[in-house]
């Protein structure tokens, strides 16, 4: 991964993490701790890196789509588990 791609990925993750940080300033319903921000930052960044790896290594479009959907599904399952503990 090039430095430019890494920087863009990091900025996107920071922008996504800014949403709950800003929401915490306006409502009591969003209550994230530093641990929540760290966990979500790791989850978002690792998912972005996984997607980048998939798109670099997969040769067919159908393979890229399939593995990308799988990576996004895993992200969603981990997010739900961390948020409400379904499993």
Mean pLDDT: 93
Characterize the biggest β-sheet.
none
- Rg estimate, integer Å: 15 Å
What gross morphology would you assign?
globular
Decide which structural class fits the backbone. mainly alpha
* Percentage of residues assigned to helices: over 70%
- How many extended strands? 0
Distance between the amino and carboxyl termini? 34 Å
What does this structure look like?
The chain is mainly alpha-helical and 87 residues long. It is 83% helix and 0% strand. It is built from three helices and no strands. The protein has helices at residues 3-26, 34-57, 61-84. The radius of gyration is 15 Å and the shape is globular.
Features:
87 residues; mainly alpha; 3 helices
What does the secondary structure layout of this molecule look like, with pairings?
Elements: H1 3-26, H2 34-57, H3 61-84
Helix pairs in contact: 1-2, 2-3
Give a quick precis of the structure.
By secondary structure, the protein is an all-alpha fold.
């Amino acid at each position: 991964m090039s430095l430019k791609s890494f920087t863009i990925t990091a900025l996107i993750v920071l922008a996504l993490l800014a949403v709950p940080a800003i929401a915490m300033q306006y409502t009591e319903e969003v209550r994230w701790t530093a641990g929540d921000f760290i966990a979500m930052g790791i989850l978002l960044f690792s998912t972005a890196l996984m997607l980048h790896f998939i798109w670099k290594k997969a040769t067919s479009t159908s393979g890229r789509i399939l593995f990308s959907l799988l990576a996004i599904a895993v992200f969603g399952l981990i997010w739900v588990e961390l948020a409400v503990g379904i499993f």
